[in-house]
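Entry 14. Structure prediction run on the chain below.
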Amino acid sequence: METEVTNISNHGLWILAGDKELFLPYEQFPWFKDKTINDITKVESFGEGHLYWENLDVDLSLEMIEHPERFPLQAHT
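Output returned:
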């Protein structure tokens, strides 16, 4: 699955994963806030629906992004 960060704003980032465009607000995905553009845009896709940001050591599934309410934060910023 091809994955690309398509936009970064003060509120979050947009990702195009396959044919899905998803928004990750910093409020729900705090690991990306205040990080460099270079670190945020280096995302890799592993397997079906699994994304990894090596520079940030962030590992998310598309299900986590689409339904963050099902996955309480396990890390502190």
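The chain has two helices and six strands.
Filed with the rest of this week's runs.
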